[in-house]
Amino acid sequence: MHVAILGATGYSGTVLYGLLSQHPNVESINLYGHEGGKGSRFFDNEVPAFSTHLPILPFNPAEIMSHNDLLFCATPAGVTKNLVAPFIEADFPVIDLSGDFRLKDPLIYKKWYNKEAAPSSLLSKSSYGLTEFPEKNTTKYIANPGCYATATLLGLAPLAIEHMIDPNSIIVDAKSGVSGAGKKLSTTSQYNFINENAWLYKMNKHQHIPEIMQKLREWDSKIPAIQFSTTLIPVTRGIMSTIYLKPIKHYTNDEILTSFHKHYDNAPFVRFKENYLPAIKEVTGSNYCDIGVNYNPVTNTITIVSVIDNLMKGAAGQAVQNFNLFWNLTPTSGLPLLPVFP
Ligand SMILES: NC(=O)C1=CN([C@@H]2O[C@H](COP(=O)(O)OP(=O)(O)OC[C@H]3O[C@@H](n4cnc5c(N)ncnc54)[C@H](OP(=O)(O)O)[C@@H]3O)[C@@H](O)[C@H]2O)C=CC1
Ligand SMILES: CC(=O)N[C@@H](CCC(=O)OP(=O)(O)O)C(=O)O
């Protein structure tokens, strides 16, 4: 198979390139950059960690479609939607890592992203690719989920699907490593700010809130909202989503564990750890989502801890999982089965 990456010099694009370059079903990878190009660019000049002397070609939909079988977009939200119409119109397969096609309702996108949404005619042709819970009618345009949304939804799914949650009780305290913000330097991603620091940002305004709600309501339409916060922490990679909720009625620890086993025992990239609460480093460099759960009878509270590597399961790894699902390949193809530890 021949695949194209748009935005390969960014963090997610680079990780994606690394995975696809070792994928047994990928014959060639073609890299594309800005429309019109910025002079001649080579991957190894911009990403010295990968000494691959591949040109970064100017973005050109006709050329991409004639030389490739699928396009991955690892471009920012707000940018992707302005580039992909020709692919959708041609029914050419795309896996989009950005947030531009995750939300079905353009008004909700506008509210949370503070940008105009893609036209409804295009939005209706995309499907939300949470790999463990894909949409029934998958389209050729797959919106790869956001990093916080992935960790949080996988943590909530079993209890939500089984209607075991008091609908008004969900509180999520999520933390992310700095690579989640991409390669651009900003005041809050520079070393002097975030080293030995923790910073809660986008309180009640994070764009993954509507993304989580859209899927959560498919599972349990009674859940009206969630309280969700995001904190930047001084690690390079990793998300920890700590979820607190009240059960709708009393459940034993065994009943809670059984609901997670039911949904994840056959999922190759979700490792349900029962009452062990996982740490970020246990998944770094891997496509795993590790989940642990605790029930406190004193406060009648269930705590779920869900950890992922934001650049893997939260972006490039899940994109490769979607690629495997789309072409009906072995689900684990091209994905490392061990984290980088310690
Ligand atoms: N980082 C993460 O953990 C996650 C990221 N994502 C999503 O993945 C996407 C990429 O994120 P990330 O890798 O962090 O971002 P980066 O900022 O690290 O990289 C963005 C890439 O997009 C390219 N790009 C920007 N504008 C254009 C354009 N107009 N035409 C072509 N290429 C363009 C950049 O190229 P250049 O440098 O030449 O401008 C760069 O290669 C985003 O939509 C992000 O939301 C999703 C989940 C997790
Ligand atoms: C640490 C950090 O800044 N993280 C980013 C996550 C961006 C991302 O990947 O989300 P989308 O794909 O939905 O844009 C944030 O919180 O906005």
From TrEMBL:
Subcellular location: Cytoplasm
Gene Ontology molecular function: N-acetyl-gamma-glutamyl-phosphate reductase activity; NAD binding; NADP+ binding
Catalysed transformations (reactions): N-acetyl-L-glutamate 5-semialdehyde + phosphate + NADP(+) = N-acetyl-L-glutamyl 5-phosphate + NADPH + H(+)
Known EC number: 1.2.1.38
InterPro entries linked: AGPR, AGPR_AS, AGPR_dimerisation_dom, AGPR_type-1, NAD(P)-bd_dom_sf, Semialdehyde_DH_NAD-bd
Keyword Oxidoreductase recorded: yes
Principal place of residence: cytoplasm
Annotated metabolic or biological route of this protein: Amino-acid biosynthesis; L-arginine biosynthesis; N(2)-acetyl-L-ornithine from L-glutamate: step 3/4
Any Pfam family: Semialdhyde_dhC_1
UniProt record similarity statement: Belongs to the NAGSA dehydrogenase family. Type 1 subfamily.
Protein name as it appears in the record: N-acetyl-gamma-glutamyl-phosphate reductase
Organism: Liquorilactobacillus cacaonum DSM 21116
